[in-house]
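ok, trying the design again with the full structure, not the truncated one.
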């Protein structure tokens, strides 16, 4: 594929992926009266079914089977799956309990948490501007917590769990494509999901089938709804520079925030507006600093090549 067409396809896939994630607050309420854990159990099982079908169609079955002969990689995917399951559960709880704005805050502060995790686990050294962005993000959370008398725990848990998930995936992502990786993660979670299904059925509290055929179909739709954005994201990541993907990612929390405020009419106090404003300033600082240093690195590398070729 020509470079321009490749970039265009990557941009389309990236916008589609983050756009779909952004409108999830309108989707998960459709799955009620199922509770968050039941929704996640269905999300896990039907995602596995969808991914396995995708592997068959794409003829990528071999990589999936090879993963089960790589204990270290499988172990990392297992840990990643736990963080992903916690992230999914807290997110669905936040959306279906009327806390979409807090959920959006989690994905706004996620880039800041990712930078912090790079310091803690990868021993990366931050520039002063990056430390300033982290400080602003911390102050933002404190402002919201003091204004409401409670820490926005949904935002914190979402940011930390997704940051840890991304950290682990970055260690195995170069060797494992999206569909086989997600299939392995959901396969590892499926025994727990199936056990929860069985427990709900034994208790007589399962909503699958008990709330009508349309509701059962809606729960089953959680599989493709989960997998398709991940596959689109993988396509975008392979075709676009990381800097572009990093900018597109803000589409998700922007859409979630807009839905929470404009569609679901969630309360925005002065403390919340102040906290969000501080987070947005921190993100602008982080993006501008990163863009500047990447551009400087490119120019320095180009100058070095010219000198070497002279």
């Amino acid at each position: 594929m020509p470079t321009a067409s490749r970039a265009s396809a990557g941009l389309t896939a990236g916008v589609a992926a983050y756009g779909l994630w952004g409108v999830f607050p309108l989707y998960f309420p459709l799955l009620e009266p199922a509770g968050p854990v039941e929704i996640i159990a269905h999300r896990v099982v039907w995602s596995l079914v969808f991914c396995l079908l995708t592997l068959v169609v794409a003829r990528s079955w071999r990589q999936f089977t090879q993963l089960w002969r790589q204990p270290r990689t499988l172990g990392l995917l297992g840990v990643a799956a736990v963080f992903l399951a916690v992230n999914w559960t807290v997110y669905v709880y936040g959306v279906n309990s009327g806390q979409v704005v807090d959920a959006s805050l989690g994905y706004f502060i996620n880039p800041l948490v990712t930078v912090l995790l790079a310091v803690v686990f990868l021993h990366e050294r931050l520039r002063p501007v990056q430390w300033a962005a982290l400080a602003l993000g911390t102050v933002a959370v404190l402002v919201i917590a003091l204004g409401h008398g409670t820490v926005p725990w949904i935002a914190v848990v979402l940011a930390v769990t997704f940051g840890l998930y991304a950290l682990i995936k970055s260690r195995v992502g170069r060797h494992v494509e999206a569909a086989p990786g997600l299939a392995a993660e959901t396969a590892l979670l499926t025994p727990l999901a199936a056990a929860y299904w069985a427990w709900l059925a034994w208790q007589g509290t399962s909503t699958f089938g008990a709330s009508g055929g349309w509701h059962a179909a809606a729960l089953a739709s959680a599989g493709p709804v989960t997998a398709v954005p991940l596959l689109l994201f993988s396509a975008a990541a392979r075709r676009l520079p990381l800097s572009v993907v990093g900018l597109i990612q803000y589409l998700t929390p922007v859409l979630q925030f807009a839905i929470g405020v404009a569609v679901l009419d969630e309360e925005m106090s002065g403390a919340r507006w102040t906290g969000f404003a501080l987070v947005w300033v921190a993100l602008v600082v982080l993006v501008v600093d990163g863009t500047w240093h990447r551009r400087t690195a490119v120019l320095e590398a180009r100058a070095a090549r010219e000198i070497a070729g002279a």
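Keeping the full-length input from now on. The mean pLDDT is 86.
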